[in-house]
Amino acid sequence: MKISKLRLGAIILGGGQGQRLSPLTSYRAKPAVHIAGKYRLIDVPISNCINSGINLIHVLTQFNTTSLHRHISRTYKFDIYSGGDIEILAAQQTAKNKDWFQGTADAVRSYWDRFEQMNATHYIILAGDHLYKMDYSEFFQHHLDTGADVSVGVHPMPSSTAPELGVLKANSKDEITRFVEKPQDPLLIDELSEVIDGETVVLASMGIYIFNKEVLTKLLKIQGDDFGKNIIPHAIETLKTSAFRFQGYWEDIGTIRTFFEANISLTEENPHFTFYDEDSPIYTRQRFLPGSEIRGAKVNHSIISEGCKIGNATLENSIIGIRSIIGDGVMLNRTYFMGADYYDDHNSKSIIPIGVGENSILSNVIADKNVRIGKNVKLTNKDGLNEYESDTITIKDGIIIIPKNMTIPDNFEI
């Protein structure tokens, strides 16, 4: 059953600074970060909305918004007969509010005059930087069946991860009885834990909420600027709140490590998350690029996007983004090479062209868009550094990151 477009409106929160994903967020908003070679994180919640029958969508933005706005405006267009609309709402100064968004709830509060006029009786609040597929109509039906004022999407997570999560406790009727933000005390974590299929887990808030319209109107008037820290705990104490237990794959792309592993895991034979699903596709911008050319390369468990030119290289557990140029003798292992926004001009005077030069070796690397890697380069973190930063290279969690537009000279090693 699909959700009536007149009943549930979607509000996607895309304004976070994403400092833990730096330097990938130095030039773009966190939801605009590229995943799987050709998509952006924002494509996930928008596609989930479309696949769930929701076509009344608003995206709230704040930091480094240019590429995010451009991507959304070029990708998502509803025709005049569908009655749908996707609108970008950026942080702005008004007569009532002269500050930027102070938190997730404050972002919604800042535009409440507009949201209140939406032809919707309920709102689903979504994060713009999570990787998962959910039919929101099932979530909405659960909300209606339980008679809840507020519903929270929850996902079982290992108890060891509790200190980094908002953790809830729910009874057999899915009524939320307790909420603790990032519990640190082991005894408290034990109290919040439960055993599911033989594993000790906690119910983690996914940062996905459904509110009745009149309830959200009242909740936004209380003090506090964040849904997870302020609004939801208050709602649990004063209103009927329900937990929707989501059993599918879900990953909060919050750090370089989670971003890297979520992408590389896509190259597995049976990944937890897949883009190969005709019933619930992930949409993105159509670029009309030619098919990729592969000349003698050995490719194993890797994803190659369109518009690439790959020579006699070896690719292992790697993702190759659009317009990537990979030279002969190159070896890529567990590497996410994001590709390029354009092809080099044949008359370019650049000494090192966009792409990876001959006989270079990359292992456990994230190479952002438009990087130029010379010949005989070795990016393998040979000294096993966990953290490092220079003008050209960053290492986080042992993963080498080459920032956007960076040039790595011939014979460089790290």
Q: At the fourth CATH level, what is the homologous superfamily of the largest domain?
A: Spore Coat Polysaccharide Biosynthesis Protein SpsA, Chain A
Mean pLDDT: 90
Instruction: Please report the first level of CATH classification, the CATH class of the largest domain.
Output: Alpha Beta
Assign a percent range to the helix content. 10-25%
Mind summarizing the main beta sheet?
Answer: 10 strands, mixed
- Which class best fits the helix and strand makeup? alpha/beta
Portion in beta strands:
25-35%
CATH topology label of the largest domain: Spore Coat Polysaccharide Biosynthesis Protein SpsA, Chain A
Low-confidence stretches: 1-6
Radius of gyration in whole Å, from Cα?
23 Å
The CATH architecture term of the largest domain is Alpha-Beta Complex
The number of helical runs is 9
Task: Tell me the total number of β-strands.
Answer: 30
What does the oligomeric state look like here?
A: single chain
